[in-house]
Amino acid sequence: MNDQRGYVGEWPPTRFNMARYCLAAARTTPDKVALIVVSDAYAPVERAERWTYAQLDDAVRRVAAGLRQLGLEPGERLMIRMGNTSDYALLFFGAIAAGCVPLPSSAQLTGEEADFLLADSSARFLAMSNELAIEPRPGVRALGPAGIMALRTRFKPMDYADTTAADPAFLVYTSGTTGQPKGVLHAQRSAWGRRPMYQGWYGIRPDDVILHVGAFNWTYTLGVGLTDPWANGATTVLYNGPRDVAVWPLLMEKFGATLFAAVPGLYRQILKYNDLRTFDLSSLRHGLTAGEALSAALLEQWRTTTGKELYEALGMSECSTYVSSSPSVPVRPGSPGKPQAGRCVMALPVEGGEEPLPPGETGLLAVHRSDPGLMLGYWNRPDEEELVYRGEWFIGGDLVHFDADGYMIYHGRNDDVMNAMGYRVSPLEVEHCLSQHPAVAEVAVTEVTVREGVSVIAAFVVPRDPDEPDGLDAAPLLAHVHEHLAAYKCPREIIFTDSLPRTANGKVRRRDLARWQR
Prior knowledge:
The chain is α/β, with parallel strands linked by helices. 25% of the residues lie in helices and 26% in strands.
């Protein structure tokens, strides 16, 4: 570790628009394919939807013009509730091009959850597909498929808004400590703040073809699948067909993917359900993974099977990825890597203080608040901001130590936020939902390890009346949470118990739940 205090990488220009930056290749390589959207993995490659940089640039600026002319003012929010289509990307970057603030939401959210985001963000516009339509709130203008199509066909393209690097760019929601999702507001400069990962994680080149498995609403996809490939003049491939683990090696082969990005859980499934030796993966240089910890066993299995490297990164919604391995930072099993060049990342004492800990001592992972990739703040949550800033440091709640060579070793969360397949999930949100069911007297939720490298969300329930016929029946409880929460937030297991482990002050000890007598 060094004594660097503050971000020392290259700073963004004062006047900076994220969409203009990401689509700069439209002015240098306009006819190059920037985006390929595949709906049928087994169809000929010619059938895939293709967008050149010039076409993207034109469509994004038309969407920007349309939104502004329809009355969306700079700084106002546009909520996007759609499936994984190219229109999602056009709306996201179009709003940013106009100086407005898109709110990308998950297609998995229930109508109830989507309505909360709409209300909490005070969004003025709501763009949604027919299958995900919800009733817009008073004062919110809804745009359906016809209205979205009109945005990119009826309006002349405007120039990119003359925004500053510190102006708001987009708003994403993540789990909050209160149990309700909280908005994370990012600046236009956030795209520039990703530059340390170009070589600090990807080893990206303009001739790369990047296949990303995620949906557009996820910051992992918006960043790794769109923002960074486009900022480097590369080609990105995204799939929006049926979820089938067999399609991923097929897509790598058919489209000549040079980089592949997924969460570790999907790498595990790909290796389990496919014989990768039957596919031509010669174009693939290496894989990228983030969202959850990569086990040493999975890393070794991938290496042995493919002969390729797998580079891991650690990040968060508030600052994207900032610790990683890469072609220039050798993989060390059990560690996600080192802080990327230019970043100031340290471990601080859990009990307080701003003096970084020496190598080998475990503390809270902290990013210096001068980092251009760091959020502007939480949306209307000053109380939550107070919890994450300590002087000049942003503290996300991860327990880590750095070894003598600068590699970070992860020790889990200092709080109780869970990680389900790469999604951060607050146990409080799940507990609140289950507590509304009449059969539940008490409930506590945590992650339970089912095998090495795999954990699931489990709910420990004290039934209101265990002698009732349905008192110990998990089915109605699971149906209840699936009605009110996105699938990735729902417990995989309901465990009935007579009581919950508590501290002397009466607080539930979630970390003891997995060992609790049941």
